[in-house]
Design brief:
The structure holds two protein chains of two kinds. Chain A is built from eight helices and ten strands. By secondary structure, chain A is an alpha/beta fold. The longest helix of chain A is centred in the middle third of the chain and has 17 residues. Classes of the chains: A alpha/beta, B alpha+beta.
């Protein structure tokens, strides 16, 4: 497997804190990675840097041989849209749209034409069947359970076949049974879509199922013990 | 405008009653502010237009007088008018007199006219012998009606008692409204032949009123007349002098023009204040819908694209405000023409009512002015919003 992500001495400082103190790591294409650490350890910051949601104070964030630091705002937006799928802890579905429209949001924001949008819709319907939420597509988010909302969220994240699937505490809002199901689904789908899966969590139960793990501590990355 | 993306953007806040109410409030406030400027300009333009129209109705485009007093409209003068391609002209006698009715008298301006005068000024002035047409304010002030007999007293012409004025009785055949109080309260039209007889003038007159041939571009009317006056003065020589219809009120018309510009500039403050409502709306939405806005960004909307969406929204506000302001303006206009509250003391303001009037240029100037302010102020805000970190917003939202 080739390296898809390479971080070199990445630092991220905020006004009153240092979130990352020089992180260096690499991840292979199609791999499944878990980053764990205590709250405030910098794991989410690392994920957002990988996803192009923020820029580092120093260092290089190279994804698929492109240094995100060098990308313009427009290029970074395109990268987020076409290359990255985000799954957040909170379902993050727009309450004014039904679930299908929520799923099609990335396609619409990208300004895709009718043909492309139809393809995305077909993919979304397939995924909905796989995740057993077909009955939810015409419903609004508030009509769904937490687990169903997260599945819709996952479908949206995968709707444009991203190369990177970045999940920030994807099970933080779910009970243990649903948590296991969601993680299994994420792993299954990332394999099916040949995406690199990066999950950030502080949940030790989830951590058990990942072979490649990193531990964040005070803004530094240390190899995790299983 | 990328409609699908903008539609998505609109759905963010149009499904929420609070934000919808806020948006309507912003829209109405902005439209009202614009309409205040439109109405003010409309009053100024309406006054200017009505005054000019009234003055034209009372004298035609230009009045010509001889420096020697009375003169005859002879073939030489007619030829000169032909040379200047002036087809519509009318010779008349204009003199001062007193109108007496029911033991009340009033100083008036008598215009001795023939049928051609009506064509020059565009008024229904076809007088039979022994009849007169009086200004509408004279009729109102002296309670004179059509069919009443009035007496005109002339300072010259009493052949029996030389020191006494000549008194002539006429029947009122028409009441004329020029639209300018000073004209309506002074002018009485008498058949030219009668006045020439009373004043023993023969076929002499002391004034010729005429219209300058119109050019295609009607907006250039004043310049057209000024240019024509220049040529007329050259061709008719020093014996005659010419007055354009606005000369009598030129200072007030000039003052109105200056006032219009000044008031419009001052009223920009009203527009600026209402633009702050738009800014408040943008800030409110940014706070209230920060989760959704940052989701848009996370899913691939660039900062520039987000700014463009805000700009599109602001432009939408501007367009809708402009449309609504025209509606408000029409309501003001109707109120000005119908409600007694808006009646003016005509002896001071020259006319009892002002009909609001705006040209397309006025609309475009006001709308463009509002747009410039909107773009300037929102540009500043959007720059500040752009500087806000995406992650900071997400963190705040999930904190």
């Amino acid at each position: 497997m080739s390296t898809i992500i390479k971080l070199t001495n990445v630092k991220k400082f905020y006004k009153h804190s240092r979130a990352l103190n020089g992180v260096t790591l690499s991840m292979d294409e199609g791999g499944e990675y878990l980053i764990r650490g205590a709250s405030g350890s910098g794991k989410s910051t690392l994920l957002y840097l990988l996803g192009g949601l923020d820029r580092p104070t120093d260092g290089e964030v190279v994804v698929n041989q492109k240094n995100l630091v060098d990308l313009s705002d427009e290029e970074l937006a395109l990268y987020r849209n076409r290359y990255v799928g985000f799954v957040f802890q909170f379902h993050f579905l727009l309450p004014s749209m039904n679930c299908l429209d929520n799923i099609l949001l990335p396609a619409r924001l990208a300004g895709m034409d009718a043909k492309e949008t139809a393809e995305v819709k077909a993919r979304a319907l397939d995924l909905a069947k796989t995740l057993m939420v077909t009955h939810c597509l015409e419903k609004f988010p508030f009509e769904l359970s937490g687990g169903e909302q997260q599945r819709i969220n996952i479908i949206r994240a995968l709707s444009l076949r991203p190369k990177l699937l970045l999940c920030d505490e994807p099970t933080g809002n779910l009970d243990s049974e649903n948590s296991q199901k969601v993680i299994q689904l994420l792993r299954m789908l990332s394999r099916e879509f040949k995406s690199t899966l990066v999950v950030v969590t502080h949940d030790p139960m989830i951590a058990e199922s990942f072979s490649s793990q990193f531990l964040m501590k005070d803004g530094m990355l240390v190899p995790a013990q299983h | 405008m990328k409609t699908p993306r903008f539609k998505l953007f609109l759905t963010l806040f149009l499904d929420n009653p609070t934000t919808v109410k806020f948006a309507i409030g912003v829209l109405v406030g902005m439209a009202f502010s614009i309409s205040v400027i439109l109405s003010t300009m409309g009053i100024m333009d309406g006054f200017d237009r009505a005054l000019k129209l009234g003055l034209k109705k009372s004298a035609g485009d230009v009045s010509m007088n001889s420096r020697n007093g009375f003169f005859v409209l002879n073939d030489d003068l007619k030829r000169k008018f032909d040379v200047e391609k002036i087809k519509t002209y009318s010779a008349l006698v204009q003199t001062e007199s007193f109108l007496i009715f029911d033991d009340e008298s009033r100083g008036i301006l008598v215009k001795g006219i023939d049928e051609s005068y009506g064509e020059v000024v565009g008024l229904p002035l076809k007088l039979k012998s022994g009849t007169v047409a009086i200004g509408s304010e004279i009729a109102k002030l002296n309670q004179i009606h059509i069919g009443d007999d009035i007496v005109l007293a002339f300072g010259k012409g009493n052949t029996e008692i030389k020191s006494m004025p000549a008194l002539e009785r006429f029947k009122v055949a028409g009441i004329i409204n020029h639209g300018v109080y000073q004209k309506d309260s002074r002018i009485v039209y008498v058949p030219l032949a009668e006045i020439q007889r009373i004043l023993e003038l023969g076929n002499k007159v002391n004034m010729i009123s005429f219209n300058i041939p119109k050019k295609q571009n009607a907006r250039e009317e004043i310049k057209n007349i000024e240019d024509a006056l220049h040529l007329l003065r050259q061709n008719f020589g020093a014996d005659y002098y010419f007055k354009p219809y606005w000369r009598e009120f030129s200072s007030i018309l000039e003052a109105v023009k200056v006032e219009k510009v000044m008031i419009s500039l001052i009223l920009q403050i009203v527009v600026i204040i209402s633009i702050f409502n738009i800014l408040a709306f943008i800030i409110f939405i940014n706070e209230k819908k920060s989760k959704e806005l940052f989701l848009f960004k996370a899913l691939g909307l660039s900062k520039k694209a987000m700014s463009d969406l805000w700009l599109e929204l602001v432009m939408l506000f501007w367009v809708l405000s402009c449309i609504l302001s025209v509606v408000f303006f029409q309501i003001f206009k109707l109120a000005f023409s119908k409600l007694s509250f808006f009646e003016l003391p005509a002896e001071i303001y020259y006319m009892p009512r002002i009909e609001l009037y705006l040209t397309l240029k006025d609309y475009l100037l006001v709308f463009a002015g509002a747009l410039v302010w909107i773009l300037l102020i929102t540009y500043y805000l959007l720059r500040r919003l752009k500087q806000k970190s995406l992650l900071e917003g997400l963190r705040q939202e999930f904190a």
